[in-house]
Amino acid sequence: MPHLLITDDEQATRELIAEIAVEEGYTVAQAGDIRQARIQIERHKPDVLLLDMTLPDGNGIELWKRLALDDCQVVFITGHSSADSAIEALRCGAVDYLTKPISLRRLKTILADLKTAAPAAKRPAAEPGKDAFSRIVGSSPAIQLFCAYVEKVAPTQATVLLVGESGTGKELAAEAIHLSSTRRDQPFMAVNCGAISPNLIESELFGHEKGSFTGADRQHKGYFEKAHGGTLFLDEITEMSMEMQVRLLRVLETGRFMRVGAHEEIVTDVRVVAATNRNPEQAVAKGTLREDLYHRLSVFPLVLPPLRERENDILLIADHFLQALNKEYGTTKRFAEEARQAMVSYAWPGNVRELRNYVYRSYILADDVIEGNFNSFSLESHSTGWGSEITVPVGVPLADANRQLILATLKQCGGVKKAAAEMLGISLKTLYNRLEEYDAHTDVDESSSSVR
């Protein structure tokens, strides 16, 4: 099944094209600007690219020239219908171009033609597991063991529950499971349950019929329908309402669902990989995760190791990010030994995501050598004087105000309890007692108190 990336700054245009493309047999990803397009291309190289010539953060044609995507066919979209724009598009290797407002008939014709000619439709199926772990960098025992478990569970149809701190790479792990499975040639779709409005999540997951609610001006297919035959990654599963958890459980048990406003069930063949950055058993105890759904999702639970448990991988990952930036911008920047030592000694409470941001920020600031004097933790050392504030309404009980202050201070200190206790002017024992009262001691890493 060929993969299509739609890059256009108009959301309505993207969604309309996406619905038509899915009906034409494509898997689809969307991007609203160049930055998002690069992210989507890194996740899944497209066979066909629909690319707006003018984007908020740059020129679509210049992006296409820099990408150098082999075996990818591009169709440019332009808001200015002219011979010059058409010639410019074709000179850049476009197979066709579309003008706004887009003709749906012409769009369907182009997509049908490209599907027939798309390299993805002609390539033999990839070998199981091939390149599945190409984006998971590391050689530490912790990450090697994790990858070994992924290789074991991927060929099965078991649902997987990924548990790990924010920034540990849960979506990459879910994608590795998909690419190592027999579903690797079918859609992989990721949904952040915490980022979707509670009023919309039912429609997003299961779809809706035209006229089923105000604003539903056409039929909409949900993720369970779009991901048919493939893998659906549900991130932040504990942020889903209890009512939606009941519906999700039923789909997992029966393989059937109904669109909002529909009366007939739809059969779906989707493998679900769920994820949470919380302790799932504690979430069950707190009532934010149904116990029956927890057991249904955790047929095969996997815990992603935090970066502090992958000490040998820190420099490998940092070098990986830096090499990618050097390649993209044609530079040869490198880390000074001081910076390398500092990275290894830091706790990285934000895990791989924080390390990636540090490398990017340091790359921007450096000329040729990335020194150790401007990094994420040197900024943090000055943060106590920046006057971070929390707002407590008048009349809030003192105990609640204390709770907000303690947890906010702990967060600002990156989870380091000793530093938070010193900032608050209380003993470390008192801080531990307070956290136990708040039942928050599992939300902040225990081992980080030994750092510094």
In order across it, which strands form the biggest sheet?
Answer: 2-1-3-6-7
Number of domains in the coordinates? 4
Q: What is the CATH T-level topology of the largest domain?
A: Rossmann fold
Alpha carbon gyration radius: 24 Å
Give the full name of the CATH homologous superfamily of the largest domain.
P-loop containing nucleotide triphosphate hydrolases
By helix and strand content, what is the structural category? alpha/beta
Task: Outline the low-pLDDT stretches.
Answer: 118-130, 374-387, 440-452
Q: Would you state the CATH class of the largest domain?
A: Alpha Beta
Distance between the termini: 51 Å
Multimerization state: single chain
Indicate the overall shape. globular
Largest sheet: 5 strands, parallel
How much beta, percentage-wise? 5-15%
Second CATH tier, the architecture of the largest domain: 3-Layer(aba) Sandwich
Number of strands: 16
Mean pLDDT across the residues is 83
Can you give a write-up of this model?
The chain has 452 residues and is an alpha/beta fold. The protein has 4 domains: 3-122, Response regulator (Rossmann fold), CATH 3.40.50.2300; 141-303, 3-Layer(aba) Sandwich (Rossmann fold), CATH 3.40.50.300; 308-384, Helicase, Ruva Protein, domain 3; 389-450, Homeodomain-like (Arc Repressor Mutant, subunit A). It is built from 20 helices and 16 strands. The strands form 5 sheets. The chain has a 5-stranded parallel sheet with strand order 2-1-3-6-7, with helices on both faces. A 5-stranded parallel sheet has the order 9-10-13-8-14. Helix 4 (83-91) links the parallel strand 6 and strand 7. The N and C termini lie far apart (51 Å). Residues 118-130, 374-387 and 440-452 have low confidence and may be disordered.
